[in-house]
Every structure is written in C-alpha cells, then in structure tokens.
Design brief:
The structure holds 2 protein chains of 2 kinds. Chain A is mostly helical. Chain A is built from 8 helices and no strands. In chain A, 79% of the residues lie in helices and 0% in strands. Chain B has one domain. Classes of the chains: A mainly alpha, B mainly alpha. The interface between A and B is large, with 105 and 101 residues.
Chain lengths: 191, 177
C-alpha cells in the first residue's frame, strides 16, 4: 500500500512540475480528502443496510444454503476455507450480489467477507492468498448485466444498447480467468 | 428485460427479510445489530480512502496520465487497441467517475454503435475501479502489505481491455478505422 501511495503522489508532483499544473495540484490536495468523506457518507447507508440484511440472512440459514450451492466453485478457488465458515458464506453472498448486478449490495458484503477472512485466517498486516484472490475477483467485475453502461448507450442514441452483452461476457470471463491464473501463479512464486 | 431488472433488488431484499421472519428470526433486532456493525466498517474504511482519493485526485490533475498515455500509445498500437481509447483504459482502474466522464465523451463524439463506441462500452462493462476496490476492501481490515494484489488485478484489467477489442471484433465485427 505504501509503495502505491508514495508512487502516485511523487509521480503526480513531478508531472505537475513539468506540466505547470501546480495550482491544480494544490487544489486537489486540499479538496480530495473532503471528497473521500462524501463518498463514505454516500455509501454509509448501503453499508449499514446490507450488513443488516447479511445478519438476517445468516440467522435464518439462507447463507448456509447458498454457500453449499456455490461450494463446487468456491471450494476450488479458496483453499483451506471450510464450506460452512462465516467467511465462505460472506464470499458467496458477495458473488450472488455481483452476479445479479447489485453493485450497491456487493461492496458492503465484500467488506464483511474481508473482515471474516481476517478473523478466520489471522492475517495480521499481511494479505492472505484467499484475500488476494477475493479482491481480484471483485476488481475484475463478475457483473452479468452492465446496467449503467447500457443506460448511457441508450441515452446517447444507441439502437441496441444490449448488443454488447456477449462481448462483455467474453471479456469479463477472460479477465476473471487471467486474474485467477495470475493470483495462483504469484502464490506459487511465493512472494 | 427492464421489468425483470426492476424486480431483482426488491425480491432479494424482501425475500431475505420474509424468509427470516418465516424461520422465526427476530428480524428487526438482528437487522439493527448487523447495521451497527456496518457503521463500524464505514468508519474503518475512511482513513485509507482519504489517502487514496488524494493520490488519485493529484494524479488526475497533474497531467501524469497524459504522460503515461503518450508513452503507451506505441504499445497500444501493436496490441490493436485504438489510441482514442487509451485515456479510458488508463482511467478506468483508477477513478470510476472520471472514467464515466470520458466514456460519455466517447459516446458523444463517436456513435455508441460505432466500432470505437462498442469497444468502449465493452471495456466499461467488463471491468471495475480496481484501485478503489483494493483501497476499500483492505481498508476494512488491518492488512497493509497487500502483496501481489495490484499486479494480479492490473493483469486482469489489461487482459480485459485486450479481450474487449477482440470480443467486439468477434461478435459485432468492424475494425480500427
């Protein structure tokens, strides 16, 4: 995380110095932290809401059933996690929300899954293999129907906003697959 | 199609609540206790989000992305990625809202059903805001050493972009103009 942060900050400074963008850079440093707070406020409600829904789903046993339905896939991907562990159940809920295109629900459920993984695998300050894989799957987009994109296409006069679907699925599948392969490869290399 | 889409969220939400009630769960108090934990999570992700938002904001205004764009255009050419789409490909993993602005611009200057418009749409639909997801997900934990998370996620993004070009060619035809 430090490498990423320092790299971005210093690279921006050097670029701004050469391109004469110091005033804008100064403005960004002052204002972006407020944007972060706004962002958290914006998703605060949905985090609370979906954490509550997750708790109800846990208590009524839905998540257990869902986890066992997904287990043929999840067992292959996440090594060393019991099918019926809280972490696996949260991961399954996150996948379900992603597949249904409910991004608002997927993020809070993903955060819960990360915290359950942390509890269960005693990770400390170092990410575990399962965490990395889970994050990669979420950055690579498991969404089946890209509603926002389709809506923007429609607004801009597309005759067939959904014609991109097969191409989106193929690109998503290849992207997810390469993410999984890369994660497993880097695990082997044992960094 | 649109009608089905409207049903997903309500059915999921009401289904879980209704099922909980039928299973004899004290739905309201369980919900509230879960929502309370969510509040803690939100507070926990704020510090790492402040750091990332500042770094991304600086990157965006500093012109650093133009430098990378310029450096990458020969690479994009050999991969068959249309040069008009490099800014989108670069911003997509970094900032969701800026990518959206660029995407909107592309849809306006090229038609959504043009080759460029289609590739851009597939790119938007098949990838996520990688940096934001990483900051958010790890921000909810004590993890600070993210090991190969970024390498792995960016690999998936790059493959996704190249696959977008290939997939549009395969399913919808057309090619670089």
């Amino acid at each position: 995380m430090s490498v990423l942060f320092v790299g971005m900050v210093l690279f921006s400074f050097v670029s701004a110095a050469f391109g004469g963008a110091m005033p804008q850079l100064s403005e960004a440093i002052l204002s972006e932290s407020a944007n972060a707070v706004q962002l958290v406020l914006k998703i605060l409600g949905s985090i609370c809401l979906w954490s509550g829904v997750m708790e109800v789903a846990e208590a009524s046993g839905i998540t257990r059933k869902l986890a066992s339905a997904f287990s043929p896939v999840t067992r292959l991907l996440f090594r060393g996690l019991e099918e019926d562990s809280p972490a696996m159940r949260a991961i399954t809920m996150n996948f379900t929300a992603n597949l249904l295109g409910l991004g608002n629900a997927a993020t809070p459920l993903g955060l819960t899954a990360m915290q359950e993984l942390e509890k269960q695998e005693h990770t400390g300050t170092r990410a575990s293999n399962n965490m990395i894989l889970f994050v990669v799957l979420n950055t690579a987009s498991l969404q089946l129907i890209p509603t926002t994109t389709a809506m923007l296409r429609l607004q801009n006069g597309s005759a067939a906003p959904m014609e991109i679907l097969p191409a989106v699925w193929m690109a998503s599948a290849l992207s997810v697959l390469s993410g999984i392969l890369m994660a497993k490869l880097m695990e082997r290399l044992g960094r | 199609m649109e009608n089905v889409g409207n049903y997903i969220m309500p059915v999921l939400f009401c289904g879980i609540i209704g099922y909980g009630c039928a299973a004899g769960v004290d739905v309201f108090s369980v919900f509230v206790s879960g929502a309370g934990k969510g509040l803690g999570t939100a507070v926990k992700i704020l510090p790492s989000l402040v750091a990332l938002a500042t770094a991304v904001g600086m990157l965006r205004v500093s012109g650093a992305l133009d430098v990378i764009c310029y450096a990458l255009s020969p690479v994009a050419n050999t991969l068959g990625l249309p040069t008009q789409l490099i800014p989108l490909a670069l911003l997509r993993p970094v900032s969701g809202s800026s990518a959206m602005v660029i995407f909107q611009g592309i849809l306006e200057s090229y038609h959504p059903d043009s080759y460029i418009g289609r590739v851009a749409s597939v790119m938007m639909g098949s990838t996520e805001t990688t940096f934001y997801t990483i900051a958010l997900y790890y921000g909810a934990t004590k993890v600070r050493d993210i090991r190969h998370s970024l390498t792995t996620s960016l690999t998936a993004d790059i493959v996704g972009f190249i696959a977008s070009v290939a997939a549009v060619g395969l399913f919808l035809g057309g090619g670089p103009v």
